[in-house]
Write a structure and sequence with these properties.
2 domains, 4 strands, cell membrane, ion transport, 18 helices, transmembrane helix, Na/H_antiporter_dom_sf, two-stranded antiparallel ribbon, 517 residues, single chain, Na+/H+ antiporter like fold
């Protein structure tokens, strides 16, 4: 009888040790990568200047239209220009709205293309936040407008008027207030405005397209194809692209589709990714050239000929009594703030993202309130929505101005409550103790940076030792040496880093070794 053999069971391979650390949660409004931060700051700098000009143009239009010179304002605004044979005998106001704003939307198209291929929108997970914020920030104002007008018996035609955000005007408000937002909040506002512009473009294209002229539309499409082929062939001469762009715009205008769509389409065709040896992509280069024209000329001129409405006591009272105008005001002030903030909070909630520890949800709500400034595109949509009813169009324009003003004041109060915190964050972001030209927050962990900081503090320590030895060796001058030492105890032998306002950066002259090297 064979001996009983014990059953041999295979031994399971040991499981690799698992880390006890939970996976890092994605941050909401996290610090930007350095190249993205540089691009955002450059873009917002140009938009801020343009926003100030926009604010000046709007005030000038209001003054001009509410003085004895109001007749001259209407004469200039309604003066016809252009060849009638080509269907382009337009008033000055229409040239500003359909022609100059095409330049604005061209820049918006480039911004959108860059965000999609190289910016915040290239990563679907990162793009979810600004997309949902912008989408909810357009749905909520539209619902507020519809609710007010359904209950009040008004026209629902203007539902899209309070859905837009004017980034330039918002930045002008920040400039007037002297408030500097941390780069993460500024980038969120810029990306929100880019996505907002995209949805506004879709609204204009879908809901405000008249009877189509298919021959002109086909010609515009053929022109866009030729424009794309020339770009891919490397043809960059302005003398080729500018005349072609004008032809495309004219055909688009005569097709029944709003002419600004031509600007967006051409902007989206530009390449916004860099190739080897390129410092800037063609899209970035053209945007750098055209943005000053858009922000400094096109948009202010549009404001000059669109914002001139009557602001008499009766007209202002009508803003809060007529359902159409009240819907616009409440949509901008309440709908925008609730929509943008709610969309961001819900997205963070369902994606389990955590807010940047340097910021609070109150900061995001303040930016959401700032998004209620809906000037340029809101005025344009108001003109399209109530075309043919001049009186109601002017009332809606007054409502846009009133709502934007209330939103600006509301946001200003919220931002001022946190201004010291913002100043501290901006100072820390721009601090460059080693004078390398790169903010220190982007160099932590780099051995070269820490060696430079060590050398700086070693020189400082040597200076303090020299002062101590001088004080010890000269009893008669101990008092004087002590005064020198006291005065130099908090001086840095380096040139101190400067903040944006020219003041000495906090911590740049500390004698406790600063941050650990």
């Amino acid at each position: 009888m064979p001996a009983h053999r014990p059953e041999v069971r295979p031994v399971a391979a040991p499981k690799p040790p698992q880390s006890s650390r939970p996976p890092l949660a994605r941050k909401v409004l996290a610090r930007l990568p350095l190249p993205e931060r540089t691009y955002v700051l450059d873009a917002l700098r140009a938009e801020t200047v343009g926003g100030v000009l926009l604010l000046v143009a709007a005030v000038a239009a209001l003054i001009w239209a509410n003085t004895p010179l109001a007749g001259a304002y209407e004469t200039v605004r309604d003066f016809p220009l252009g060849p009638a044979a080509l269907g382009l005998n337009l008033s000055v106001q229409h040239w500003a709205a359909d022609g100059l704003l095409a330049v604005f939307f061209f820049v918006a198209g480039i911004e959108l293309k860059r965000e999609l291929v190289a910016g915040e929108l290239r990563d679907p997970r990162a793009a979810a936040l600004p997309v949902m914020a912008a989408l909810c920030g357009m749905i909520a104002p539209a619902l507020v407008y519809l609710l007010v007008n359904v209950l009040g018996g008004g026209s629902t035609t203007g539902w899209a008027v309070p859905t837009a955000t004017d980034i330039a005007f918002a930045l002008a408000v920040l400039a007037v207030l002297g408030t500097s937002l941390p780069s993460a909040l500024r980038a969120f506002l810029l990306t929100l405005a880019v996505v907002d512009d995209l949805f506004a473009i879709l609204i204009i294209a879908v809901f405000f397209t008249g009877d189509l002229n298919f021959a002109a539309l086909g010609g515009a499409f053929a022109g866009l194809v030729l424009f794309w082929v020339l770009l891919r062939a490397g043809v960059r001469g302005w003398y080729v692209h500018v005349p072609l762009a004008l032809v495309i715009w004219a055909l688009m205008y005569n097709s029944g589709v709003h002419a600004t769509i031509a600007g967006v389409a051409m902007g989206l065709m530009l390449r916004c990714t860099r190739r080897d040896g390129e410092e800037h992509s063609p899209g970035e280069h053209i945007e750098h050239l055209v943005r000053p024209l858009s922000a400094g000329l096109a948009v202010p001129l549009f404001a000059l000929f669109s914002a001139g409405v009557s602001v008499s006591g009766g007209a202002l009272a009508d803003v809060f009594t007529s359902p159409e105008t009240l819907g616009v005001v409440l949509g901008l002030v309440i709908g925008k703030a609730v929509g943008v903030f709610g969309g961001t909070w819900l997205t963070a909630r369902f994606t389990r993202a955590e807010l940047n520890e340097d910021l609070a949800w109150a900061d995001l709500f303040a930016v959401a309130a700032l998004a209620g400034i809906g000037f340029t595109v809101s005025l344009l949509i108001g003109e399209l929505a109530f075309a043919g009813d001049t009186a109601l169009t002017d009332e809606v324009k007054a409502a846009v101005l009133t709502g934007s003003l209330i939103a600006a004041v509301f946001a200003a109060v919220l931002l001022k409550l946190r201004v010291r915190r913002y100043q501290a964050l901006v100072t820390e972001e721009e601090r460059d103790d080693d004078l390398s030209g790169v903010p220190d927050v982007y160099e932590v962990g780099d051995p070269a940076y820490h060696l430079r900081m060590a050398a700086i503090y070693e020189r400082k320590a040597a200076e303090q030792r020299r002062l101590a030895e001088a004080a010890t060796a000269s009893p008669e001058g101990r008092t004087g040496a002590g005064e020198v030492a006291a005065s130099g105890a908090h001086e840095d032998p380096r040139r101190p880093a400067k903040g944006t306002d020219g003041s000495k950066v906090a911590g740049a002259s500390r004698d406790d070794g600063g941050r650990p090297a």
